[in-house]
Amino acid sequence: MNTTYIDFTDIGDYEDFYAQLKEKIKLPDHFGDNLDALSDVISGELKMPLHIEFVNMSVDQLEIFEDLLTTLEDAEDSVEDFTFTYFLEQFEDEEDAEESEEE
């Protein structure tokens, strides 16, 4: 399966997202930077199987990109061989970090 990782560390808005997406996935020339276009290319123009994985999302980004997450979850339900996951950035609290250093 072809896995594409989108790192949200430097993504602040949809413009940043689409720029990184275009770097990672060959999208058709007519692709418009919007969720309808994304849904359309997933459902008919991208080579499957495909897994898209978002990494290092912040809690704030979950809210900012809620419609994007919903669009990709819907595509996962309706497009054969398309899967999608996302992972939040992880922070160690100071106590855990100190314990790790002592060991």
Written as H for each helix and E for each strand, in order along the chain, the element string is EHHEHHEH
The portion of residues forming beta strands comes to 15-25%
Mean pLDDT: 90
Determine the structural class based on helices, strands and strand pairing.
alpha/beta
Task: Enter the CATH topology name.
Answer: Barnase, Chain D
- What composes the largest sheet? 3 strands, parallel
Number of domains: 1
Quickly name the level 1 CATH class: Alpha Beta
How would you describe this structure to a colleague?
This is Barnase inhibitor. Residues 1-87 form the Barstar (barnase inhibitor) domain. InterPro entries: Barstar, Barstar-like_sf. It holds the Pfam family Barstar. Belongs to the barstar family. This protein has a single domain (2-102), classed as Barnase, Chain D (2-Layer Sandwich), CATH 3.30.370. With 103 residues, it is of the alpha/beta class. It has helices at residues 14-24, 35-44, 59-64, 66-78, 94-102; strands at 2-7, 50-57, 82-88. It contains 5 helices and 3 strands. A 3-stranded parallel beta sheet has the order 1-2-3. The radius of gyration is 16 Å and the shape is globular. Helix 2 packs parallel to helix 4 (66-78). 48% of the residues lie in helices and 20% in strands. The mean pLDDT is 90.
Brief summary:
InterPro entries: Barstar, Barstar-like_sf. With 103 residues, this protein is α/β, with parallel strands linked by helices.
What is the topology?
Blueprint: E1 2-7, H1 14-24, H2 35-44, E2 50-57, H3 59-64, H4 66-78, E3 82-88, H5 94-102
Parallel strand pairs: 1-2, 2-3
Helix pairs in contact: 2-4
